[in-house]
Amino acid sequence: MTGTDLVSAGTVPGGDSTRGDAGGRWQNRPRARWAIIIGATVLLAAVMLGAILVGPAGLSARGVVLSLVDALPGIDVDSGLTDQQHAILWQIRMPRVVLGALVGATLAIAGAAYQGVFRNPLADPYLLGVSSGAGLGATAAIVAGLSMSSAAVPTAAFIGGAAAVTATLLLGRTVGGGRSETVIILAGVAVAAFANAGQTYLMQRHSETLRQVYSWLLGRLATDGWNQIQVVVPYVLVTIAVVMAFRRTLDVMLVGDTEAASLGVEPVRVRLLLIAVATLGTAAVVSVSGLIGFVGIVVPHAVRMLVGPGHRLLLPLSVLVGAVFLVCADLLARTVIAPAELPIGVVTAAIGAPFFLLVLRRGRVAR
């Protein structure tokens, strides 16, 4: 039997069997799994619709639903929305809600992938320096006088994040061949420290840009229509597809590299591939949203507590719950101090930090 066959049979620790886990009973029941996934999908649709309806310009639920139906090919219905309301729906609210869902889904599945390959429930998508590299790139673009609304800042942030992770992996390979997850993490710490030092230097030399830099660092989902979404969608789809394709392999890797190798898995190659893919998706969404913390830690951890560690259910639920979480966080950011707006990173930290501290205090870090 191959490693994936053993996982399916429930004979590999950490696989879909999850003996003794409160959520393990869902893992080997296909109908139950699909019921949970469909329920989470319906919840996401409801949350997105609610987020679209909330705002200073009143949009009726009926008008929004009919407008969405009218957008389907081959269907022509009158939504009853005015031209101004139609523009608000399709050029302001819809892109922002969709972007929030994409960012939340990507950060959550990237976090689940990181926690799987590193066998550490505290790992998150920013572990290897992507946030520090993206912050350095964005800061460099801002101090260069480029507008926050232009494509230059997201592009610089993406390049910075990707370059930081590339440097981390190259540095990790020079020490022990990059075969140990500990070596890779330590390399990420070193690269992140270097990027943070560079960013601090730029901020001190150009103090007049501090407000713009902190605005980006604290996260935001402001969009200029659908342009940003068109840029990040390919990265999001590739990230989700590749990580999902390795869901059984991630279960096998939970037993350790030596045991996984004996079951036919190449842990070093799989680890580097998933790190690269998850980080690429993270860098892409961070480049348009700024640094939004806790999504990649809290969401997979909460899902794991509910349904167990089996990645066959953990990964799709992380995508859906991550999208729900960030859309709700953005809704709070828009409404708590309206007409002003909170940085979404502040909202996710305010929600995520107490939750995670409570979990740690109770000693229930899910593995």
TrEMBL record:
<feature type="region of interest" description="Disordered">
    <location>
        <begin position="1"/>
        <end position="26"/>
    </location>
</feature>
<feature type="transmembrane region" description="Helical">
    <location>
        <begin position="34"/>
        <end position="54"/>
    </location>
</feature>
<feature type="transmembrane region" description="Helical">
    <location>
        <begin position="272"/>
        <end position="301"/>
    </location>
</feature>
<keyword id="KW-0813">Transport</keyword>
<feature type="transmembrane region" description="Helical">
    <location>
        <begin position="313"/>
        <end position="336"/>
    </location>
</feature>
<feature type="transmembrane region" description="Helical">
    <location>
        <begin position="225"/>
        <end position="246"/>
    </location>
</feature>
<protein>
    <submittedName>
        <fullName>Iron ABC transporter permease</fullName>
    </submittedName>
</protein>
<feature type="transmembrane region" description="Helical">
    <location>
        <begin position="183"/>
        <end position="204"/>
    </location>
</feature>
<dbReference type="Pfam" id="PF01032">
    <property type="entry name" value="FecCD"/>
</dbReference>
<feature type="transmembrane region" description="Helical">
    <location>
        <begin position="126"/>
        <end position="144"/>
    </location>
</feature>
<keyword id="KW-0472">Membrane</keyword>
<keyword id="KW-0812">Transmembrane</keyword>
<feature type="transmembrane region" description="Helical">
    <location>
        <begin position="342"/>
        <end position="360"/>
    </location>
</feature>
<keyword id="KW-1003">Cell membrane</keyword>
<dbReference type="InterPro" id="IPR000522">
    <property type="entry name" value="ABC_transptr_permease_BtuC"/>
</dbReference>
<dbReference type="InterPro" id="IPR037294">
    <property type="entry name" value="ABC_BtuC-like"/>
</dbReference>
<keyword id="KW-1133">Transmembrane helix</keyword>
<feature type="transmembrane region" description="Helical">
    <location>
        <begin position="151"/>
        <end position="171"/>
    </location>
</feature>
<comment type="similarity">
    <text>Belongs to the binding-protein-dependent transport system permease family. FecCD subfamily.</text>
</comment>
<feature type="transmembrane region" description="Helical">
    <location>
        <begin position="97"/>
        <end position="114"/>
    </location>
</feature>
